[in-house]
């Protein structure tokens, strides 16, 4: 999701004559696109900002084509923090790192080029974190680093309020993009040579709006019928919203990748309830059974959190048991850390660090062993 936001931001700047460089010394504008899902990610951003401080007054090498250097073009590079951490911390980022010029939340990115222009012209700092939604225009200048593959947002935000997750607070409630805009964007991409598309949303299978009366399975069907789409995938599904017609469509359509990213988070029903996930271990296993029935060689990845508040050894064993039963192809395993605004933050973070580490390591070892025995033949974006 964040990579795709970065591409959208890059697209805005390229459309205004900027060039892309990986070299921070040479750059006129350095933007850190950030994540707030874990405390560790925020700590890394401040450490990166510390390194950027030293480069702040190194004269940038390139100037955007439509801006001339001079009094209105300060020699200092512009440093910006964008994305979820920007929304989460707002001006506190500038208080802690006063050399940062720009703090922009995920829903405020549509106007990022104008903000940078204002900083150059007026030499002021800008903090914008309050927009409820993005402008449609944001999706016009999509840059995709892979000529054949592109990510396409079908929805923004999330309304699920899993008790550990900061996303609904930093990205806002779920908004589906109009189906016509999505289809037009993909048709345009195919004309540019893209043949593989990954649809993105915090919860793609929650797609749909009352105005449009179209659900995720119907949208997927329409997209898979677009001429030139050879490969179609999607991230991320929520088990509570699974519609089994999705598996029928996946089995029928050759160009839909036989891949599910279906986070389980915990194998314990008690913990799932505390997480506000709205499904049980039994329901999850039923989904997996149905998927394998329709798509015998399908690939499944999951996300798991260990050390959620009050997680007992028995709860942990339930997770271990579930992973042994499902035998995921891939699993992304995380140690719980409390996040601001969330409900779980009010629970005591009572699992000691060493115990979280132990549980994490056990699941990692288990998954490594399982992944080694599986031969995955598809490229997963
Ligand atoms: S579904 Fe839950 S974990 Fe995923 S983004 Fe929404 S609130 Fe966060």
Would you give an account of this structure?
- This protein has 381 residues and is of the alpha/beta class.
- The chain folds into two domains: 2-128, Methylthiotransferase, N-terminal domain (Rossmann fold, 3-Layer(aba) Sandwich), CATH 3.40.50; 136-373, tm_1862 like domain (pyruvate-formate lyase- activating enzyme), CATH 3.80.30.
- 37% of the residues lie in helices and 14% in strands.
- It contains 13 helices and twelve strands.
- It has helices spanning 2-15, 39-53, 84-89, 92-96, 112-122, 167-171, 179-191, 216-224, 245-252, 269-274, 281-294, 313-326, 353-373; strands at 29-34, 78-83, 102-104, 126-128, 149-153, 155-156, 175-176, 196-200, 231-235, 259-261, 299-306, 330-335.
- The strands form four sheets. The chain has a four-stranded parallel β-sheet with strand order 1-2-3-4, with helices on both faces.
- β3, α5 (112-122) and β4 form a beta-alpha-beta unit.
- α12 runs parallel beside α13.
- The longest helix is centred in the C-terminal third of the chain and has 21 residues, at 353-373.
- The protein is globular, with a radius of gyration of 22 Å.
- It starts with a helix and ends in an 8-residue tail after the last helix.
- Residues 63-74 have low confidence and may be disordered.
